[in-house]
Amino acid sequence: MLIDRKNWQTHSRWCFAVVFITLASVVWFCCLRWYSGEWAGGSSPTGFAFGLIGGAIIVFECFLWVRKKYLRTWRIGRAQTWLKIHIWLGLLCLPLLVMHSGLRWGGWLSFVLMLLLIFVVASGVFGLILQNILPKRMLEEIPAETIYSQIDTLGGQLFSEADRLVSVTCGTKPLVTSAELESGPIVVGAIRTVGLVQGKSLELRPAVPIADAEALKMFFENEVASFLRRGREGNPSVADASKSAVLFQNLKTQVPPAAHDVVSAIENFCEQRRQWDTQARMHFWLHSWLLVHFPFSVALLVLMLVHMFVALKFY
Description:
Elements: H1 8-36, H2 45-69, H3 79-100, H4 108-141, H5 151-169, H6 178-183, E1 191-194, E2 197-200, H7 214-230, H8 236-239, H9 241-252, H10 260-288, H11 290-314
Helix pairs in contact: 1-3, 2-3, 2-11, 3-4, 4-10, 4-11, 5-7, 5-10, 7-10, 9-10
């Protein structure tokens, strides 16, 4: 859910409503403190109302998961609208429930509930910030972005293409036949970029063996192969763009000039793999906050129901 200048108008009404309700509630809460000489607790009419509204919001917030997982085909509002309401009501329930507590921690159950509420709201805000930052960074910094689940498979394909190119160039594999060329040409050249779209520039011609290029094969086996297949875990040196540039520059001094295009092609493969590794890291952070937000939300809902039962029965 993006909150920026382009779609702020769709959020502004909710934002103003939440701010107004919060300020009005705080003013009323403080007026009661001035009138009675103590903060209104959960058993007071005002505190009970705050708790009732805050609890209803929590139930609604948790219902978003049910809406997205089991009721996706039901015409009960757009998912974007639900998410928008989820964000702003989630922010509203925190001050309401803080005032419901009467600014006191209470017993252990109330204490745990308040901590869970803080963690849930904080993790939600953190996730919202990530969702407004990381996708834009992906678009700007990862022009070779691909489907996340296919990164390892595509890395294996990069390795196969690079291994095939190096093998032919170093003379350890027969020249490419026309039939093999139809099934997949060997890449010789750079990755070209048009705007924010990046792709491989393919030369539809077979590579040829180049004399005295043994250093290329050794370099590929020792430095590049494991990186293309496993990313940073395979070779941290090649995963670092600056270190990789030095390694490839040194390689060019060890092979004939005729092999420099092949070296550049292998270097471009490594750059593409680096972008996919960056995408994988961003993807992890883009979704990892849910590992905190969702289970804590479920725990909050369950303990809130327990709290309601205990409060109504014994107080």
